[in-house]
Amino acid sequence: MEKIFNNTVDAFALKSDTELDRAYFLFKLIASEPLVKIGTAVTNFALKVHLPVEGLIRATVFDHFCGGTTEEDCLPVVDKMFTKGVCSVLDYSVEAKEAESEFDKALEKTLKTIEFAKERKAIPFAVFKPTGFGRFDLWVKLGEGKTFTSEETAEWNRVVERFDIVCKTAHANDVALLIDAEESWMQDAADDLVADMMRKYNNEKAIVYNTLQMYRWDRLDYLKKLHEQAKQEGFYIGMKIVRGAYMEKENKRAEELGYISPICVSKEATDINYDEAIKYMIDHIDSMAIFAGTHNEESSYKLMELMAQKNIASNDKRIYFGQLYGMSDNISFNLAAHNYNVAKYLPFGPVRDVMPYLIRRAEENTSVAGQTSRELNLISAERKRRKLQD
Ligand SMILES: Cc1cc2nc3c(=O)[nH]c(=O)nc-3n(C[C@H](O)[C@H](O)[C@H](O)COP(=O)(O)OP(=O)(O)OC[C@H]3O[C@@H](n4cnc5c(N)ncnc54)[C@H](O)[C@@H]3O)c2cc1C
Fold this sequence. Notes:
By secondary structure, the chain is of the alpha/beta class. The chain contains 17 helices and 8 strands.
């Protein structure tokens, strides 16, 4: 496959010199683990005691990784990226809430993003997290097969209702809907509910997409079983394929509670598992749709290669590549320049509420080997290229 991801001209075409400089210093900063630890602690403390740090956060890490505080705020970014063929997925990134009013608010926000998506080619998907619509422990309890109290049953019915409203609205407006995956000990209950939604709303094509975290060694079997059901019952499968974001937490819990970790034994094993899931889906693309959520160049090339082998057009609607806003523009913008479908998650929400998301991004960029140095090398190359041009 032709190597396309080192083209920094296309990768950073939308970044001004100042934005490029800011990105450079930001990645330099978060490359350092101690700095991220100190920065996180100081920021959390400052927000807790209401020091006026929101402006500082906005001007630095927030604006790099987020589209704004509201959906409307995000629109200039959405439009700008779309001039280069890169789409957006508006992601209301407020995490770890437990109140019913917050779940209703998340539903409202997701419905609004479906409205936005309906009107814009630049926003082909909406997205939400299962724990955005229902209490974490409720998912866990259901997944463990424990009996609900009558209050919990009523609470669960409200979760199902929220799912149904959002999937029904997505279906009615012909907007595809991604549902994120989270910790394995709540995911079984989410998988069952999402599969029900696919049964109900994926009869003509994939509207509802679940997420498979391929760092879990049991996910390929899950996909194959779901495929059997889909064939028998006549529904399409939509899947976002990712490696998975909760590895440390998963391994720690498995060790503490003394069960076999659901995580693959090595990075290589995860990579093989990821490739196999993509291959399986491409082999059955007539009844499936893929959203490949990855910053891994090799995985992206492999998917491009499979598409070429099967004579699948690069812009086939059933296949999207996905990255997060603020990361791996070299993959997103170069794919789009070669006519592939690309959508970047564009997080939004109040600065304070988006902090856990931002902290995870900073930590991920510190811990993912090679990721930050790749970003830094590409940004450096582009800065040098522009200087020589001046
Ligand atoms: C658009 C998009 C949507 C996403 N949605 C979700 C989601 O819904 N749920 C979710 O959990 N994550 C999600 N993620 C995050 C994703 O799961 C990964 O954490 C992240 O993308 C890094 O993986 P990679 O494929 O990009 O890159 P790589 O750098 O190639 O892979 C890093 C990943 O490999 C795995 N890994 C690393 N070391 C080991 C090891 N020793 N053993 C086993 N596995 C290992 C881990 O999953 C790690 O995150 C999403 C990412 C994107 C881009």
